[in-house]
Amino acid sequence: MHKHPNTKQLDALYCMQIRCGERKLVLPRNAIVELKPFAEPEPLQHPQSRRLIKAAPWIIGSVIHRNLPLPVISLEMLLDASSDYERRRARLCIMHGISDALNPPSYAIVCQGFPSLIEVPKNMAEPLAQEAAPADPDANNELIAAQLQLGGFFSAVPDLDVIESLISEALANAKND
Predict the structure, then answer these.
(1) Res 131 pLDDT > 70
(2) How many distinct structural domains can be found in the chain?
(3) 3-state secondary structure labels for all residues of 42-111
(4) Which residue from 170, 131, 125, 165 is spatially nearest to 145, judged by alpha carbons?
(5) Structural domain span for residue 120
(6) 3-state DSSP of 25-50
(7) pTM for the complete prediction?
């Protein structure tokens, strides 16, 4: 097979690392659309009808982005089943969905600080073996696809397909407010 001389082999994946509470998460860089300052979300609006609704507690409200109400998700509350989320140094990370589960295909995640661009070496893109992360609190969490060890620290790779399906299901089952 002939390779074009300007074609470079992919030696690394470029991702964005965000902090959600105590957890560092690694997300595909093309999934992050924008970072906004945090403001308490408005009451949750259904993305199509714009009627006020009550959904799962980890959907903490909505934010208007490009004239559309987007659900605001606390991954802290979803992943840890906690009753609150960290507001200190909080920002909203506007995400473009990677699956077909959402319509519109966008949502916001509460994160702390600023995302950082990280380079994940190709050989690190595989999940760590269970014995490599024995104290991993996410070992049995179906919402975490993998753990990466980067620079001596563990970062979780959330399963965005599953999370987006949960968002879609929660919005579909939401009650009128």
Answers:
(1) no
(2) 1
(3) ECCECCCCCCEEECCCCEEEEEEECCEEEEEECHHHHHHCCCCCCCCCEEEEEEECCCCCCCCCEEEEEE
(4) 125
(5) 13-125+140-176
(6) EEEEHHHEEEEEECCCCECCECCCCC
(7) 0.81
